[in-house]
Known about the structure:
The protein is mainly alpha-helical.
Amino acid sequence: QTRPGEKKKAEPRKFIPSQRGALITENPQEEENQYTFSDSPAYTRAKKAEDQAKRAAELEGKDETRGFLRSVEELASKQKWEEAFNVLERRTAVPSGLFLVTRAMLRWKFSRYGHALRDAEDALKTYGSSTKAGPLAAAFAAFARLCIGSEVRDKGSCSRELRPLLEAWQQAEQDSLRRHALGQGLFKPRQVERLLESCQPVVDMEADDGSYTAASG
């Protein structure tokens, strides 16, 4: 173990060649540098600015993401979800399917479930052929319907890996409802036998099993 202030000796295996007469692989007199160029704060700042400029050019250079996704990404990186949500809510035009999917996810986060599901299904219906918006819209719509207890639609638009998961999730949901005491009565209509004779649901009113005509007044 090297003591403080003592030079670290190079290990022989690093500079002694394995074959006789071969070149020295490393200079044994060279001290090991514990710093790298990437540790410089100036380099780190310049690298970060370069990456941000490259990302901004990429987002603004594509029709699917131009005009909205850059600002949403910047706000999301700072956990400013409500501001990102308001940015998309103020937009009246729909430029692409990715815009609809992004707005759907933010609407879902802020409990706008109906609007979120509508955005996802509109994206799937209008931009389903898009290689990015189509699969994302199908996946989000499928999981949104599962969360609200509805049947998954457009399962064929989901990826091959996602379909078995959706089917297994739906099957597990149905099994859970069947086992629950309120599963059939609360979440689904329950089959009951028809009345064999008249009954009185309230005082001085007699009811028979059959069809009734409803009228106002």
